Amino acid sequence: MATFGTLSDRLAETFKNLRTKGKLSASDVDGTVREIRRALFDADVSFDVVKQFTAKVRERALGDEVNRALNPAQQVVQIVNEELVGILGGQQRRLQFAKNPPTVIMLAGLQGTGKTTLAGKLAKWLVKDGHTPLLVAADLQRPNAVNQLQVVGGQAGVPVFAPEVGNGVGDPVKVAKDAVKHAERSHHDVVIIDTAGRLGVDAELMKQAANIRNATKPDEVLFVIDAMIGQDAVNTAKAFQEGVDFTGVVLTKLDGDARGGAALSVASITGRPIIFASTGESLDDFEPFHPDRMASRILDLGDILTLIEQAQQAFDEEEAMKVAEKFATDQFTLEDFLAQMQQLRGAGSIKKMLGMLPGAGGMKQQLENFDEREIVRTEAIIQSMTIAERRNPKLLNGSRRLRIARGSGMTVTDVNQLVARFEQAAKMMKTVARGGMPQIPGMGPIPGAGFSGGGKRPPKGKKSSGSRSGNPAKRAAENAALASGAPAGPAAPAGSGFGLGAGAGAGAAGAKGAPSEEELAALQKLLGR
């Protein structure tokens, strides 16, 4: 996540220095805690939160749980992860719905935090969950605020209650009260009230917000805060808590490149949970806030559960089973490949999904260079083929490839590369479908795999001919490796970030970098295994 990028990098560098330590001394712990403190201050985290956080980390890092650990470095990462979860609110808090609908949700916050857009995001999210929300235009002061909410409501496919034109005209308290009555008559089970904000906290703002709250008796008052405003976020949150009070927090603009320490401070300072997070400009860039998953993202340990949830929403399970059967029986075609790519696009930003993988911080440059438009180009090439060509790529001779290149606005080289990638992907997935482990180009053999899927085994009774390298030194080294039973290819990557998962015996059971049983079960269910 962009907002925590610098903090993640600083913490990753700090933990990297612990990897070579067999046992941590008091000076090692003090040095690590000092670097964590600096990283948090640089990220704009509140002084009180940093002081409390580092004190707990130091106390636990010097305790018996680290001294007895097989891998002290991994244990320290686990401690930091658990304490991060604590200051982010501990457990996830869900929306509280009224026993007798409609549930009234009031949005409060300063102007410019993204309340109006967030109202549309929340409404669309509720629709997916089977609710029938109604948006209420109670911001009658900001120019064109009512019109903006109507546009956002149209994009989300949700009706908007807007009896007043706004622009300084109308009574927002009356609008809010009338909206609740209208929702009861129209059978809307959720009412989302978009209230006015100010450039700064003032008495008039607080009085209007308090009057709306008293008039509508909302089940939830969500304080919307911009994750990019830094230290002032804490003061603003305290002012709203005293003037209006709120039941939960929503973080917006988490895709920005600011330091984001406000997000790490608000829940701890106010004692109110963070319920949702807005991670982009699209109405779909909205998700429930999980403190444990956010802590894992900050520490570059990945967020596999959120990745699986997004994939389950985008991919049809029955269709996935059909594709798996096609993989196993050599019937997978470019037509199926196109359908899978279109489903992948429907899951959201591929960059964001890749960023949820453990150790993604080490691939930052590759992720930045990844061009999502490549999928659009691939679709154009496949859609320029005839149905017969999609189902049987062997028909693609030189003249056909030239025609496809011209039809898609690409080059013959692009078409050739696509076909080559498709054949390679089909071969790898066929190996997986039959229970094997494919050899991924550039990674070498995967340790522990029964076979690589790509290479042929030597016939029984015959010994391997050994290395065929033209370099005598390299040939000798590879032959020695083969003689000892070790793979002769390049070493496989040693675990994820900070050395986590580097060895099965090195405290892996307690390491947060390893997938949990819940994550593995969810992943197996997704794959239909």
What does the model show?
With 529 residues, this protein is of the alpha/beta class. It is 51% helix and 7% strand. Helix 1 packs antiparallel against helix 2 (26-42). The chain is flat. The model is unreliable at 440-464 and 486-514 (pLDDT under 50).
Structural features:
single chain, 529 residues, alpha/beta, 8 strands, 51% helix
Structure, briefly:
Helices cover 51% and strands 7% of the residues. The chain has 529 residues and is α/β, with parallel strands linked by helices.
Biggest sheet, in brief? 8 strands, mixed
Q: What fraction of residues sit in β-strands?
A: 5-15%
Radius of gyration (CA) equals 28 Å
Could you say which structural class the secondary elements and strand pairing correspond to?
alpha/beta
Q: What is the molecular shape?
A: flat
Give the proportion of residues in helices.
Answer: 40-55%
Instruction: Give the N-to-C terminal Cα separation.
Output: 31 Å
Continuous helix count: 23
The tally of strands reads 8
Q: What's the arrangement of strands in the largest beta sheet?
A: 3-2-4-1-5-6-7-8
Poorly predicted runs: 440-464, 486-514
Overall average residue pLDDT: 74
